[in-house]
Amino acid sequence: MKHELPPLPYGYAALEPHVDARTMTLHHDMHHKAYVTSLNAALEKLPGLQNRSAVWLLRNPDKIPEALRSAVHNNAGGHLNHSLFWNAMSPDGGGAPGGLLGAAIKHDFGGFDKFKTEFETAGAKVFGSGWVWLARTRKDGGKLTICTTAGHDNPCMHGDYPLLLNDVWEHAYYLRHENRRPGYLQGWWAVANWKEAARRFDLSGRSAGKTWEEDVQAPATTG
Ligand SMILES: [Fe+2]
Question: Whole-model pTM?
């Protein structure tokens, strides 16, 4: 099984003006594609791991030969995170989450506005390239948390379940926002896909068993 680049679930210009079409084109067609190509190239030398998902590869570094561990790790993470990221945005996004996720955000962060400020602050503080996440922990009754990861690491590596994420690598925002990452983070709420985050919240509550690891991945689009 080769890992495959999932198609964007909307057009390149669908998230304008907050995320511009040129950025989306380069981000998906060049950056994400390169992670998929490099992951498949690394796995060509590891036939025993070719059927493993990106999540499994991230969560089992000790099963990957040391000479290829970094290449597999970085590119599996790049593939997984971007697959999740495309679905974390929508032309119909924005607004505020309702239902159980909305209630959980209010309970765990003291309100939706407080959550947004905390998420933006965390994303702005990432030094260099990384990601900012809303995730559900496996402890404390599934409490929500905001966390950041360096490079293409993912909260699933530590057992947390990602619900919503934003890419704070410069390639995600530099063409439109230049060095103003905080402005990018603030404007991004207009395209945040709360419907998908709510779906993942629901999934995270139902998949406490052994299927959890595979459920972290986005729907069918993730290789
Ligand atoms: Fe990216």
Answer: 0.93
